[in-house]
Amino acid sequence: MATNKMKKNQVLEEIRGILKENTNMILTEYRGLNVEKITELRTALRKAGIKFKVLKNTLSKILLKEAGIADLDDYLQGPIAIGFLSSDVANASKVILDYARKNELLVVKAGYIEGKKVEISGLKAIASLPTREVLLGMLLVTMKAPVRDLASVLQGTTRKVLYALNAIKEQKQKQAA
Predict the structure, then answer these.
(1) Could you read off the pLDDT of 138-163 as tens digits, one per residue?
(2) CB 112 within 8 A of CB 25
(3) Are residues 162 and 105 in the same domain?
(4) Between the CA of residue 170 and those of 115, 118, 162, 165, 167, what are the distances in Å?
(5) Distance CA 119, CA 97 (A)
(6) Are 57 and 80 in contact, with CB atoms under 8 Å apart?
(7) Is the pLDDT of residue 40 over 70?
(8) Is 88 helix (H, G, I), strand (E, B) or coil?
(9) Residue 103 shares a structural domain with residue 121
(10) Would residue 107 be called left, alpha or beta, if left means φ above 0 and alpha means ψ between -120 and 50 degrees?
(11) Angle value at C-alpha 94, between 92 and 96, nearest 5 degrees
(12) One domain, residues 67 and 31
């Protein structure tokens, strides 16, 4: 009995630590998944920087209440596992939703992202976003475009001045000859 209580406290402290770092999460129901499938899922999620924890609903309610998250109580029914997302929420959502699409036994219930409850439709919209790296690349291209365009315009103006000076030079050479 004492070791069981110690294990619960250890799990609670681990999850509290995760929640202090990041409150972005996706709640899933894993009813019917065997150990092999859950291990496969955890491996895929770990590569994406997602911590996937199977918790009892009472422990989940306690932890979420401590973290100030009360919106998800309705979803804490049945066998629940919580995927704690990394900083790249779009990619993490994509990984979980892709796995759920391939394996119908994993049901995505809801999410909690940036302090707000997100329904499954919202998670699908987030998952359709480009990854962080792609977005940063798009931002860089957008920031670089005005400078490139200005250089092009200035180059064209300089070229026209050179053509005009060259034409004047040729005209004066013809007049001198």
Answers:
(1) 888 888 888 888 778 778 778 888 88
(2) yes
(3) no
(4) 72, 72, 12, 9, 5
(5) 13
(6) yes
(7) yes
(8) coil
(9) yes
(10) beta
(11) 75
(12) yes
Q: What is the model's pTM?
A: 0.70
Number of folded domains in the chain? 2
Q: Assess whether 97 and 50 both reside in one domain.
A: yes
Q: Which residue range is the domain that position 148 belongs to?
A: 130-177
Give the count of beta carbons closer than 10 Å to the beta carbon of residue 50: 24
Q: Would the pLDDT of 79 be above 60?
A: yes
Q: Which helix (H) or strand (E) holds 108?
A: strand 107-113
* Contacts for 91 with CB less than 8 Å, ≥ 6 apart: 48, 131, 132
Question: What residue has token string 């013809």?
Answer: 174
Give first-to-last CA distance, the chain, whole Å.
112
Q: Report the CATH number that the domain containing residue 60 is assigned in CATH.
A: 3.30.70.1730
Q: Which run of H or of E encompasses 112?
A: strand 107-113
What are the residues whose beta carbons fall under 8 Å from the beta carbon of 55, sequence distance 6 or more?
A: 11, 15, 63, 80, 81, 82
Mapped onto helix, strand or coil, the DSSP state of residue 82 is strand
> Dihedral sign, CA of 138, 48, 87, 123?
positive
